[in-house]
């Protein structure tokens, strides 16, 4: 159990991080160019870490599988980034952000990590403003804020519906400056395929040049994994199709514990599935729930008529609409946390009130008509129009919506062909974010010395459910303000080590293993494509390890995934060759990892005999259909140790969660 020392500093929670920094070892500026650091992944976490470490003087080698760091999936984040600056004067504070995050995570996150996240959040905004990130501003020129789910204040900073893109461009500009100085060596179109451990420490990686197919060795004094989450284990998710778990899973198989894999976030505001040939799902920003109201018809015959195309949504009068989130959760309404909103949508659709004309009838409405009228009247008064017509109110209200969310509305109309200013958006929950990930201590170091994990790839901050707009916060907090301190504490012992050679036996063995797998995939005379197996896995995961889980379904999933795994290794067919760009070969490596991880996710979900956040067990729910936690037996982090190819043999290690600053109680948003 000593491997699971979380290293949370002693003392009052408000002083932990400051005192910890004050007593860390340092690497002096004149010694930093003697240290090499590998950063795998160049989204917000990896990009900010690479830029900051290089600016401090370290030699950084940054790897991304895209053709540019600008294409990292962080670019897809829409709604905003949280920070406790209290610009609105509505009661926000560092403690309030800390409390909301722990409560939103259903009391399954570490107090120390979450408080640090809240504590540094304000610095993130200052950093990004300095980089030129064009955050939205109010009429007086001050930075504006939105509300997001699970909170009762406005703390979310945003750049229209493009916040992730703008933040990533800020990090990329900082990276580009260091690339120009030679402090970052950028490896685009490279994928990490194994971790190299020398004398018990992470000392490098084996990477494949995705353009030439060359297998390369890269060494460093420390390795940072910032490769994002594993939502694509479900095949259909809001993640970019290339997003994968391979880097995190490779270090798991080398000794890094994998924590809370069953904690998966289902986002309630996605465009519904429209067909079996679909490759990914599209997210509509949670920020839309500030202005939109979610509903289904009150009368089941109206729902049937809508599905059959005989009735239009806008024809249903307000008294015949069931604004079910406002009905069930009056204190938070449409801004309940994502897990709560998702389950509520599923309940209405399962009861027959879904409005989408697909096989499952999965879909609810997100309607802006109320906000259009409200803002239209306000705008009319501001313009001294004292008796506005309905058309004037509508036009002014739509103009306000367009200014606030315009690009999101354009995106929705291009995808669906429907005008959301007139016809309510159709939405339904879909896999979005993963709260589980590689186990790390307070210093963001895994159970492998010298291997650090940041951003969505680690498990540390969100518990069983992430509050909206906190992913960008965690990624940038880790990269800009946490890792540069904690990794220095580790690297201080390496200033006289010298360059790590790549011609040792450990590199030989790792490269040989990668090459053998490449050869296997290209020479296996199978009959099915990689996507065939990925879709089979996704179907099992969504139906049995998705929004609602049962012991019977989870046991079936474990067995069925094993059968798919076995069939994959016998019958997968990978076309093309190893010496050129080969997307099918890339996918084969990733799906092989997804098949193993998917089985562990089901095992973890079966082991956790409670419901909390994104992990919902129907056999552990209240009569009202709410999550029922078991704090007596399950108030711990599940950390799994790899034992070999039989995933069922993984060993569970428990990190007890201790709450000294927050009262643990049943979550309520009513």
Automatic annotation (TrEMBL):
Cofactors (names): FAD
GO biological process: anaerobic respiration
Keyword Electron transport: yes
UniProt-listed Pfam families: FAD_binding_2, Succ_DH_flav_C
Broad class of where this protein is predominantly found: membrane
Domain FAD-dependent oxidoreductase 2 FAD-binding: 36-472
Known catalytic reactions: a quinone + succinate = fumarate + a quinol
Residue positions of the active site: 338
Protein's cellular compartments: Cell membrane
Keyword rRNA-binding: no
Domain Fumarate reductase/succinate dehydrogenase flavoprotein-like C-terminal residue range list: 534-669
Keywords assigned: Cell membrane, Electron transport, FAD, Flavoprotein, Membrane, Oxidoreductase, Transport
GO molecular function, one term: electron transfer activity
UniProt topology in membrane: Peripheral membrane protein
GO CC annotations on file: plasma membrane
EC number assigned by the record: 1.3.5.1
Annotated protein name in UniProt: succinate dehydrogenase
Lineage: Bacteria, Pseudomonadati, Bacteroidota, Flavobacteriia, Flavobacteriales
């Amino acid at each position: 159990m000593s491997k699971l020392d979380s290293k949370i500093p002693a003392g009052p929670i408000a002083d932990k991080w400051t005192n910890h920094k004050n007593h860390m070892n340092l690497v002096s500026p004149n010694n930093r160019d003697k240290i090499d650091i590998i950063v795998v992944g160049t989204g917000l976490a990896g990009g900010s870490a690479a830029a900051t470490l290089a600016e401090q003087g370290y030699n950084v080698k940054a790897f991304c599988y895209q053709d540019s760091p600008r294409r990292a999936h962080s670019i897809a984040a829409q709604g905003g980034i949280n920070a406790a600056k209290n610009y609105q004067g509505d009661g926000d504070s560092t403690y309030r952000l800390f409390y909301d995050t722990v409560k939103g995570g259903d009391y399954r996150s570490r107090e120390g990590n979450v408080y640090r996240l809240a504590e540094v959040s304000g610095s993130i905004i200052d950093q990004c403003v300095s980089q030129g990130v064009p955050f939205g501003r109010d009429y007086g020129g001050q930075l504006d804020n939105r509300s997001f789910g699970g909170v009762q204040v406005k703390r979310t900073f945003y750049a229209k519906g493009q916040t992730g893109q703008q933040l990533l461009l800020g990090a990329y500009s900082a990276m580009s400056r260091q690339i120009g100085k030679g402090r970052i060596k950028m490896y685009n179109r490279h994928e990490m395929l194994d971790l190299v451990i020398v004398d018990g420490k992470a000392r490098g990686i084996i990477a494949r040049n995705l353009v030439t197919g060359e297998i390369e060795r890269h060494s460093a004094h420390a390795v940072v994994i910032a490769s994002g989450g594993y939502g694509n284990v479900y095949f259909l998710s809001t993640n970019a199709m290339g997003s994968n778990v391979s880097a995190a899973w490779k270090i798991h198989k080398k000794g890094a514990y994998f924590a809370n894999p069953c904690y998966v976030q289902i986002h309630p505001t996605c465009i519904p599935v429209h067909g079996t040939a679909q490759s990914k799902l599209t997210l509509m920003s949670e920020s839309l729930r500030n202005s939109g109201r979610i509903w289904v018809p009150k009368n089941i015959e109206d729902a049937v008529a809508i599905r059959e195309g005989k009735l239009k949504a806008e024809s249903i009068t307000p008294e015949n609409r069931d604004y079910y989130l406002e009905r069930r959760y009056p204190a938070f309404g449409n801004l309940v946390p994502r897990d709560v909103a998702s389950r509520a949508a599923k309940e209405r659709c399962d009861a027959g009130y879904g409005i989408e004309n697909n096989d499952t009838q999965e879909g609810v409405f997100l309607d802006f008509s109320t906000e259009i009228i409200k803002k239209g009247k306000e705008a009319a008064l501001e313009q001294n129009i004292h008796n506005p017509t309905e058309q004037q109110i509508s036009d002014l209200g739509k103009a306000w919506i367009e200014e606030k969310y315009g690009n999101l509305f354009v995106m929705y109309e291009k995808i669906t062909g429907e005008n959301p200013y007139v016809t309510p958006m159709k939405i339904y929950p879909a896999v979005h974010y993963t709260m589980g990930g590689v186990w790390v201590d307070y210093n963001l170091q895994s159970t492998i010395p010298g291997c650090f994990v940041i951003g969505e790839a680690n498990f540390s901050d969100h518990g069983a459910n992430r509050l909206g707009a906190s992913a960008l916060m965690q990624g940038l907090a880790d990269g800009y303000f946490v890792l540069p301190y904690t990794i220095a504490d580790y690297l201080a012992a390496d200033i006289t080590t010298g360059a790590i050679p790549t011609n040792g036996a450990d590199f030989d063995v790792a490269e040989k293993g990668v090459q053998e797998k490449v050869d296997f995939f290209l020479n296996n005379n199978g009959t099915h494509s990689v996507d065939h197996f990925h879709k089979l896995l996704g179907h099992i995961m969504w139906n049995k390890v998705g929004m609602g889980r049962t012991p019977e379904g989870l046991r079936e999933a474990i067995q069925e995934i094993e059968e798919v795994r076995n069939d994959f290794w016998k019958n997968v067919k990978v076309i093309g060759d190893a010496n050129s760009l080969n997307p099918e070969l890339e996918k084969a490596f990733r799906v092989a990892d997804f098949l193993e991880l998917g089985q562990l996710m089901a095992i973890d979900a079966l082991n956790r005999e409670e419901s909390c956040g994104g992990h919902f067990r129907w056999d552990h729910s209240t009569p009202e259909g709410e999550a029922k936690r078991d704090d007596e037996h399950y108030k711990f982090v599940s950390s799994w140790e790899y034992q070999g190819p039989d995933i069922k043999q993984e060993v569970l290690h428990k990190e007890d969660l201790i709450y000294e600053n927050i009262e643990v109680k049943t979550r309520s948003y009513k």
